[in-house]
Amino acid sequence: MMEPTEVLSIIAILSIVTVEFGGHALLRFVTTDAGRLGELRERFFRAGHAHAGVLLVLSLVYLLYLPRAGFSDGMEWLCGGALLAGVLAQSGGFFVHLGIGREGRGSYGTVLTRAGALLLAAALIALAAGLILAA
Question: Taking 80 as the threshold, does the pLDDT of residue 106 lie above it?
């Protein structure tokens, strides 16, 4: 049976492929369909795309350190799952806002982005605490 960090790393790596596809779509929008998205939507597309890419790379580093914290498999699943859910929520919230948001107003997308940030913070704090206690 595979370890939690192995399965979660595979999920993160495969998720990077979706970010690559998003980059291709964004490039198409800004080069061949310039202006089609509109300024607000283009800003949120860029933000969602950038956050997804950076946070997925962060998750790969996180998953390398997670076994060093000495957590049980269940705790590794919880922390790693919270991290990946946070990545999906934070970056996905930008895309939700892109679809339903309005200039200068919050939406379900901005709520989702903030919830993702909280999940990410909780996962990072848990890992930091585990590493401190394992030292």
Answer: yes
- Rounded to the nearest angstrom, the gap between the alpha carbon of residue 110 and the centroid of all alpha carbons in its chain is 14
User: How far is the C-alpha of 76 from the C-alpha of 69, rounded, in Å?
Assistant: 9
Instruction: Compute the average pLDDT of residues 2-30.
Output: 90
Structure tokens at 8: 């979660």
Residue pair 26/67 in contact by the 8 Å Cβ criterion: no
Domain ranges for the chain:
4-134
Both tokens assigned to 123: 């996962």
Determine the residue type at 40. Answer: L
- Give dist(CA 24, CA 18) in Å, integer: 10
Q: Average of pLDDT values for 109-129? A: 97
